[in-house]
Amino acid sequence: MKKQKAPKLSFLIFLILLFLFVIPLIINYSFKLKTKINFFIIEWNAGDALTFYGSIIGSIISILGVFLSIKYAQQNYLQDTLNKVLPYLSLEILEKKLIDPFSESIYSKIYNTAKSESVKKQEYKEIKLKKMYFIIKDGIITVKVGLNKEQMKLAERGGNVWIPGEKGEKILTNIPTFNVPIKIENVGNGAAISIRIGFNKKNITTNEKKYVKPLNLKIGDSIYLNFFCTDIKKNDLGEYILEFMYEDIYKNKYIQSYNISIEKNSDDTDRNQFVIEIESNQKRIN
């Protein structure tokens, strides 16, 4: 960018020197020349010519100033118009209230008896998508609208589960599990249209990235996201990126991204940590 601006600045300085110094000197010098050709003999003097030239330059500068003022005002008006409908998505990590495994009845699970339950009549429903679960397993990311029974059990208990021992006793065991709930809310001045949410590994190409189907968020609307990973393998470790691509009502496109990593805990090599960078910059991409 600096290489492109340097020639423009040099050309501007050249024009200023030309119109303010070189041309007036030429005018002043030309009136000192004598000629026998009647066509070039004029009744003006150098002062009159320089005054006329100054008036022209002044008029051009005035017109240019008005033009630049109008252009600047139009740009400000356009920017103000965009700001009035500019959406912005905020990320908030939600608190979790885990189930205490000692509050559960262990013996009721050992001597569990089958109980008949009334079968609820299933009805077809169409509902607005409000939750998304990004499930990481063996380095592969899948998107679901909910967790299965076993996954939900681990999520609700922070990975603490009772497993049967060799003698039939129950042993409390911790299965390393990440369950990170976040809320995305439109806190901007306008609706976010055609939001595409992508959660992918950082080291893949743009063509390999996957995004969920588009959705819309009006001002104040929110959507729940959850990142779930259990029985963490080596393929699950690494850097990820959470991206939101959306438009305003004028079809201007924006992108927000958050860096996420699953890494080894420096204090305990047997455990891992899930790290999210909360801050994100909004970029306009068209």
In short:
By secondary structure, this protein is an alpha+beta fold.
Q: In DSSP terms, counting alpha (H) and pi (I) runs of 4 or more, how many helices?
A: 4
What structural class do you assign from the helix and strand content? Answer: alpha+beta
In total, the number of domains comes to: 2
Ranges with pLDDT <50 over ≥5 residues? 106-120
Largest sheet composition: 6 strands, antiparallel
Give the C-alpha Rg.
Answer: 35 Å
**What is the number of strand segments?**
13
Report strand %. 25-35%
**Gap between N and C termini:** 19 Å
- The shape, in one word, is elongated
Rounded average pLDDT? 78
Helix content: 25-40%
Please write the string of helix (H) and strand (E) elements.
Answer: HHEHEEHEEEEEEEEEE
Topology record:
Blueprint: H1 2-30, H2 46-84, E1 89-93, H3 106-110, E2 131-137, E3 140-144, H4 149-156, E4 160-164, E5 170-174, E6 177-186, E7 192-201, E8 215-217, E9 222-230, E10 238-247, E11 253-264, E12 272-276, E13 283-284
Helix pairs in contact: 1-2
Q: Characteristics of this structure?
A:
about 30% strand, about 30% helix, 13 strands, alpha+beta, about 290 residues, 5-stranded mixed sheet, elongated, single chain, 6-stranded antiparallel sheet
Can you describe this structure?
The protein is α+β, with helices and mostly antiparallel strands. The protein folds into 2 domains: 10-84, no CATH class; 89-101 and 128-284, no CATH class. Helices cover 28% and strands 31% of the residues. It is built from 4 helices and 13 strands. Strands 7, 8, 10, 11, 12 and 13 form a 6-stranded antiparallel beta sheet that branches. The protein has a 5-stranded mixed beta sheet with strand order 1-6-9-2-3. A hairpin with a 5-residue loop joins strand 4 and strand 5 (170-174). The longest helix has 39 residues, at 46-84.
